[in-house]
TrEMBL record:
<dbReference type="InterPro" id="IPR003593">
    <property type="entry name" value="AAA+_ATPase"/>
</dbReference>
<protein>
    <submittedName>
        <fullName>ABC transporter ATP-binding protein</fullName>
    </submittedName>
</protein>
<dbReference type="InterPro" id="IPR027417">
    <property type="entry name" value="P-loop_NTPase"/>
</dbReference>
<dbReference type="InterPro" id="IPR003439">
    <property type="entry name" value="ABC_transporter-like_ATP-bd"/>
</dbReference>
<keyword id="KW-0547">Nucleotide-binding</keyword>
<dbReference type="GO" id="GO:0016887">
    <property type="term" value="F:ATP hydrolysis activity"/>
</dbReference>
<comment type="similarity">
    <text>Belongs to the ABC transporter superfamily.</text>
</comment>
<dbReference type="GO" id="GO:0005524">
    <property type="term" value="F:ATP binding"/>
</dbReference>
<feature type="domain" description="ABC transporter">
    <location>
        <begin position="2"/>
        <end position="227"/>
    </location>
</feature>
<dbReference type="Pfam" id="PF00005">
    <property type="entry name" value="ABC_tran"/>
</dbReference>
<keyword id="KW-0813">Transport</keyword>
<keyword id="KW-0067">ATP-binding</keyword>
<dbReference type="InterPro" id="IPR017871">
    <property type="entry name" value="ABC_transporter-like_CS"/>
</dbReference>
Amino acid sequence: MIEVIGLTKRYGGKTAVDDLSFTVRPGHVTGFLGPNGAGKTTTLRVILGLDAPTAGAVTVDGVPFRTHRRGLHHVGALLDAQQVHGGRSAQAHLAALARSNGIGRRRVGEVLAEVGLADAGHRRIGGFSLGMKQRLGIAAALLGDPPVLMFDEPINGMDPEGVRWVRHLFRSLAAQGRTVFLSSHLMTEMEHTADHLVVIGQGRLIAAEPLRAFADRGTRQRVTVRTPQPAVLAAALTAAGASVDTAPDHLAVRGLSAEQIGALAFANAVELHELATHTTSLEEAFMEITAGHADHLAGSR
Ligand SMILES: Nc1ncnc2c1ncn2[C@@H]1O[C@H](COP(=O)(O)OP(=O)(O)OP(=O)(O)O)[C@@H](O)[C@H]1O
């Protein structure tokens, strides 16, 4: 479990994270979402003890990460897949990490196989694609078999097969009872991966809830109707409690289902030419809920 309590991080006059509190529980994949510059990487760095908080506290399983002597056995993290020594082989890189964390050499082969790099273990990392580097970073995070895992934008650079693989991996790690925390600025990446969300904007908390609850809060249904008698139908729909926007060639209706609208049209002898239901996507809900929280609007802070 990761607990972030009243976390604030300032860099000079810039507030990157502002009084942020949330909990990431084991057994779930939790997505950490926010527009560019929202403060996700900063938060992950503070959780890992790479940056000191200006105020507030962060604990991993009840204690600050810095005081965990078990290192990779306790938290596995991938912050920047590009930050690896390109001259080494994948095997040598993982072996060095294993050695400095008291992890047996056998584990290196196991994690390379787990991330699909068994055949590339002897190759220089410098020749790896970004997707392969992401896999290597995930292998490093898994090395100590830790109960808590954190990944910063892990899907960046992965091909569709890689994306499917990584989603399955994260879900199975969570199903084993681990805490899995993933950051992304794209809701589409989280939609099929995470079951919980922590959403931030301009360093502040916007939502911390199950993905379904977030979706239900943001997504809405709208029904478009084409009819040669828009005024008659609009009056009947409004009288039935719907909100109706009149466009030149259709009515956009909220608050009633297509079935209810069809029945009302029938009862009022209104001819219909089209009746179509549109559901806002989760991505649109995310854009709507985070609107106004993008970093470029934060100039005066
Ligand atoms: N070392 C630093 N010095 C000064 N400002 C910083 C530093 N690190 C981050 N910031 C600023 O803090 C804010 C939050 O940055 P952060 O990288 O945490 O956001 P993010 O949500 O991870 O964004 P992205 O999705 O673009 O990676 C940004 O405005 C960034 O410019």
